[in-house]
Amino acid sequence: MIQDIRYAVRTLLANPGFAVVAVLALALGIGPNSAIFSMVSAVLLRPLPLRDVDRVVSIWETNAKIGLPQAVTAEATYLDWARQSHSFEKTATAFALPEYGVNVVVGREPERVPAGMASAGLFYVMGTTLLRGREFNAEEDLPGGPGAALVSEGFWQRELHGDPAVIGRRLTIGGVPRTVVGVLPNEKIMFFGRIDVWTPMAMDPNSTQRISRNRAVFARLKPGVTVAQAEAEMTGIAQRLAREYPETYEGWGVVVIPMNRLVAGFLAPPLMILLGAVGLLLLLACANVANLLLARAAGRQREIAIRAALGAGRLRIVRQLLTESVILALIGGAGGLLLAHWCISLLRRIMPDALALLQKMSIDGRVLAFTFAVAVLTGLLFGLAPAIRTSKADLNDALRACGRTLSGGGTQRIRDGLVVTEIALALVLAVAAGLLSHSFVRLMSVDPGLRTKDLLTMQLNLPVERYGDPDKRARFYRDVVDRVQALPGVESAGAIEFLPFRQTFLNSRLSLWRYHVLGEPPVRAGHEPVADFRVITPGFFSTMAIPLDSGRDFDRRDTGSTAPVIIVNETMVRRHFGGGNGIGKRIEVPLGTPREIVGVAADVKLYGLDKEVEPAIFVPHAQWAANMMSLVVHSRSDPGQLAAAIRREVLSLDAEQPIADVRPMREVVADSTILRRVAMGLIGVFAILALVLATVGTYGLTVYSVSQRTHEIGLRMALGARDSDVLRHIVGRSAMLAGIGVVLGTTGALVAARLLKGFLFGIGSNDPLVLVGIPATLLAIAVLASYLPARRALKVDPMEALRYD
């Protein structure tokens, strides 16, 4: 074996051009496989870094009637679950909104950091061992309990400079002095997104709040209890609560989901699509290198014959040739790892915090083992057919060849088959990329119903401890909007509680509320319609360029002491008021008195460009004074230049109130399509690589075919064949192979298109523009790739060709 390796290395060094081309093709095939596998490993294969992770589950409410397969729950509901269930060793709850956070004062300047609230025992449930200190205790988790806080490892190192005496350190968090009681390791909590500071949930154990659903619930199963048993018990509890509180729980159910499946669930489908795409790319690279080996083998037949004449058996020759192939593949695998490392670094930079698990992508032992296995299998796959074919060469014919190449019809058929395979695989990837690209173009052409250009957004969060009075909150946001609107260059300003297109893993539909239109027949509890409920300030609609179809906008007349009013969207009007506009009608929502409709706003895509518009209710901030609001500012010039001036105005009102997440609105919209953009971009790159490899394969086959048929071409030309006849003959054959590849590839593409159906928007999986245009384009590329060497064949001197060999 050592001798085989040495000889293989010398052979490859003697043919550097061939080796470089083959290694490059293999690196382009293996590298993307390693990069995508690292994503799969991080999300699907690597268990969450939690103790006894198989016993950690999440508990969610469900409601098929309103299309909620997985919803957070209310405070009193969680307390009932915790008291009545017996399947769990412990239950805990969390409220994590990374894009909002809390204000923290470490030095002189206040800073807002991503934050969450956790009940006592949450990190025990999660199986997390703290780096320092402890988690919250029962006393700290009560209203009015001692002010405590947990900080992340990153916050500890970044803001507190890794202070070894961090336990017991006092920080002002949300306007309240708190004591740091523990430090959490970053990697243990990444599935929440980036959370730098945790404070106690501090729930009232006698709470009766069953309407506002904003608590994520987690639990640790008792030893021996299965997920199915726990879900059966929780279903029974849900049924009892529905009988006891029909107005709140009728139609609601419960689902128990293991943490590993919860975290990986929504990423698994796109990852499997990407893994399939890079698998096709690898097969195409194998076919390309196999073609190179067959072409090279034609020039080595005399060498192989001499080895056979000196006593080398056929098995010995096959082993030697396979050794060369595997060494090529291993070198290609090393190049692929370098490419994968670059790809992983790029993917980490573009992935948002909401996909924090993907930040754990790395070339670890599992990825190295995968790459090594792929390289070895690839070497055997692309090297086996050429090795067997070469070892079959007739000894006498090869020795008489004296420099001629003996390809034979069998070798030619294998090469033809490989080119057909390359074209078919390239077509499948190209169609997938075409469908995703066409779908993305359609998606980005969707009118969101609001302004996205020249618009700056930022977020503020008023601490409850200093802004407990609703009137004080209302005055603060009114003054902020007035001051910002007075800045030079500002056209208009406004604020909204939940910024359109902003959503996170755990709170994608937190703003849905039940409602009832007064005058309509009552609806059975649990089957009430739901609407998107958003708190806004006057000026929000004009700032976002959302037109009012009828009625009026909110203004300073709408205060906490005046009649409650709302603005609804067109979808709400169509659903309930037919041809009318609903002005003057009254709608009842939980936690408030009936509200009069004073305006109708145009429909807006609040949750994403690919989401359906739902009924929406807008409430004036002065009448529902939320703490957390997003400020939106429309400017005549670059809005990014206003950030410093806006920050100064906010600090002039409250020196401890920072602004955070300052971003143009177009970036917010772009982030809402991140998964589609990444999938489209990656598969597009794979498709381009596939087209390049297929084109090179077709070109190489034609060059090889022309070189083998020099004598025949010269004879045809000597007998009077015209240039067009020779061109038609050579190009026609390549076109026939490309046509077969296109037919086979189209069949595979139809299957792939059906698998992509759930990722498409605005087009069908049988989109004619893609399924006709891309095969035609690929066929044209293949014909062009064969035309160039065919043109060179016309320069053959007939007399020289007749003397050939």
Describe the model:
It is a single chain. The chain starts with a helix and ends with a helix. By secondary structure, it is of the alpha+beta class. The longest helix has 37 residues, at 314-350. The chain has 24 helices and 23 strands. The radius of gyration is 34 Å and the shape is elongated. Helix 9 runs antiparallel to helix 14 (408-444), helix 10 packs across helix 13 (395-401) and helix 11 (314-350) runs antiparallel to helix 12. Strands 14, 15, 16, 17, 18, 19, 20 and 21 form an 8-stranded mixed sheet that branches. The protein has a 6-stranded mixed beta barrel with strand order 3-4-9-6-8-7. A 4-stranded antiparallel sheet has the order 13-22-12-23. The protein folds into 3 domains: 54-265, no CATH class; 407-446 and 671-805, no CATH class; 463-656, no CATH class.
